[in-house]
Amino acid sequence: MKKLITTILFFGSSIFVFAQSSKLVTDFKQTTVIVSDQFADCNHDHKLGNCVSIAVIKCALGQFGAIENVFKSFIKNDDGSFNVEFFDGIKVKVTTSEIDIVKQISGITPNANSKYFEDAIIIYACMCKRIYEEAQSEKKCILTFTNAVESLNSGYPTIDGSKLLGMDRTDLTLEQIKTEPNAVIWCSAHAAYISSGTQDLLGNPMPLRNNKMRNLARYSKIKGGYKLKINQKS
Length: 234
Hints:
alpha+beta; 3-stranded antiparallel sheet; 11 strands; about 40% helix
């Protein structure tokens, strides 16, 4: 009887994880980002799009279940701001005005009955604040928090998305990608969240066909996939 109960609990937990992961594919989506001409002129290597960060956010929420588990420490203050510590020890604070900036220019948009949109905005804001603070020693293009959002709006290396959350990655084979409930797939031009063989195409589900990411010429075959890995520092 004990073995039966354990099996039922495990099966029920698996169904919950699968349902949550499937929901994330369509819960919120990437639309048009906003980058000022001034920042674009400064940041010569920019491309418009934040597919990497969107993929990593969805993967993190799917893997860890809730925004509180995406960070080593996550505190909401009475004024609506957040103090967070990433698992690699980096600490940031994001204010309500900074969260509003992300809503205005990140292009992250909720689909109908979205459950995770607000969490996605907060995580994106934390990623941007991390970028802003790390850039202050250089004093180049990222002079304000808005610039940091514009930087992430301008793309990020597809293989390195886990670094945005201060995490490592566990690389997956194509066969593992097809059944993994939460993963990021990538090629040179694009990254996407994928759940059990169904990838996120701008908030729409698209079955993985062979090893092609999208049916467009510049989106090449999948070069790799990974899930997030916490490498906690004391």
